[in-house]
Every structure is written in structure tokens, then in C-alpha cells.
């Protein structure tokens, strides 16, 4: 694993620890925010490993997938709307 992707992945791991603590305290709003951050960090780590480049800076998961992974935005939108 590349150093940059390892850093993002480790930071996501720290976010998961925070999520666990927040859920135990029934602080769901904070847990959801940390979950989104963790997902973004894992996605960035994956993009670095796959593309061997740093991903575009964005907090939109759909945009990140489209621009960095060359995925069809209409398919991404459909999948995200199922949640």
C-alpha cells in the first residue's frame, strides 16, 4: 500500500473509533458525520491505489467517483438514491 493511501486509510480507522463512541452515547448526528468522512477517506485511499495519483479535492462522493474512477454519474445517482 502506498504511503498516501495508508495515511487516508488509517485516518478513516480513527473516524470509525469516533463513530463507535458516538453511537454508544446515542449521538447519532455526529456518528453520521464521521461515517461520511470515513467513507470519503477510504474512497481517497482506493483512488490513490487504483490510479496512482491523488484524487480531486471534493466532499461529494458522486463527483469523486465520476471524476476519479470514471464512473457514469447517472448510475451513481441511482445507487445513492436507494439509501
Automatic annotation (TrEMBL):
Q: Which domain of life is it from?
A: Bacteria
Where does the record place a coiled coil?
none
Q: Name one Pfam family in it.
A: HEPN
Q: Which SUPFAM superfamilies does the record cross-reference, listed alphabetically?
A: Nucleotidyltransferase substrate binding subunit/domain
Matching entries from Gene3D superfamilies are given as: Nucleotidyltransferases domain 2
Question: Can you tell me where the transmembrane regions are?
Answer: none
Q: Which residues form the HEPN domain?
A: 9-83
Question: Can you name this protein?
Answer: HEPN domain-containing protein
Q: What is the lineage of its organism?
A: Bacteria, Candidatus Roizmaniibacteriota
